[in-house]
Write a structure and sequence with these properties.
This protein is an alpha/beta fold and about 400 residues long. The protein has 14 helices and 15 strands. The N terminus is likely disordered.
Amino acid sequence: MKISDGGKPSLFETASNPKHGIYVHIPFCQRKCAYCDFYSLTDLTLRQPFVDSLLQEMALVTSDEVRSDTLYFGGGTPSVLTQQQIETIMQQAKDLFTLTPDAEITMEVNPGTVTQDYLNFMRQIGINRINIGVQSFSHNILEFLGRIHSPGHATQVIQQARKAGFDNVGLDLIFGIPGQDASTWQDDLKTALVFAPEHLSCYILSIENGTHLDQMRKSKAFEPAPEQHIADLFCITQQILKDAGYEQYEISNYARIDNGEKAWRSRHNQKYWSFAPYTGLGPGAHSYRAPLRYWNVRDVGLYSAALAKGRLPIQESEKTTTEQQITEAIYLGLRTCDGIDIAHFEKLFQIDFNQQYGDTLKTLYEENLVIVDNSRCALTSKGMLFHNSIVERLIP
């Protein structure tokens, strides 16, 4: 579907699905981080025109037939919006979308962009999960990444979030950074654990084309961390967090386990790995309902121009083939500790899983890379290190 079509995506032509999620992309930052390739702007004078356009998009895609159990504000830096702007968007979401009573409502914030009053306000208007972009508690690493906050800001905002009443706090950390040794990374993990966050996302630094970090690499300003060193840090992460009572439920994501329960996984993020339907709002946001995938224009000006004409700001769409869906089911399923539900896979694609992949899986099992039984196929802790290459062996 192109922008000019102006119609509603087929996502809203189906019956209610309580697993549906809503993602809102807030495309603003105080300063662009060196490693980030997400769409964002630093011109904060465009915030209100964007919010006005976002409200129009929400009105265009609303449907009484769709129930959503997650609402996620990501970016960019959502916390650069004013309290009034966030409240307006929240009210529009409540008015137009059918959110389940227990909906998980998450907002990403960055240290240095929020105050105690702001966090109190977020909690009061119904945001019940907060994800804090800490990235590191090391001043040198934060400076290398181009972050605007200090280690002190990071610890302060975590404490303030607890004081505001957030009992579901997630922290983002990055490893595999040039100059980051094992000791520095262990210190970051241990500092994070002092605050007992319900969720930890530990990402390997990715140097994306066109970013400032990519330019620095090309100019030989630094040498990327060796692959073996990154692998060592990955294993350190697994062990430290396992010992601290966290489950690695996806390659980069860890949830605290309380009394044997698994209540602290990110409900919204799990949608991306399980083919659940979701709607993306804002410039550059993606939406999905099998087999249809579509995405908005990655430009605030074009986004607003389309909506001013009463049209959805969709740049392109694609109808995924069965072969694409099979590849994605394996790729995404193996990212999670739950792995691939074999019976569901066979029912969905009319394929005998063992007959199709058995020989390769036998070899992978002998290499201690996968666990396979009658109900599921999942990667071992060691296998998660080699996720991409394992998928390539299964689907050449």
